[in-house]
Amino acid sequence: MAFVTGLVNQELLLKNEYLLVENRILKAHLQPGLRLSRPERIALAEIGKRLGRKVLQQVASVANPDTILGWYRQLVAAKFDGSRERRLPGRPRIAPEIERLVVRLARENSGWGYDRIVGALANLGHRVSDQTVGNILRRQGIAPAPGRKRTTTWSQFIRGHMAVLAGTDFFTVEVLTWRGLVTYYVLFFLHLETRRVTIAGITDQPEESWMQQVARNASLEGDGWLSLRKIRYLLHDRDTKFCPSFGETLAAGGVKSLRLPARSPNLNSFAERWVRTVKEECLSKLILFGEGSLRRALREFEVHYHGERNHQGKGNILLFPCGEVPTTKRGPSIRCHERLGGLLKYYHRKSA
Question: How many CB atoms lie within 10 A of CB 254?
Answer without folding.
Answer: 14
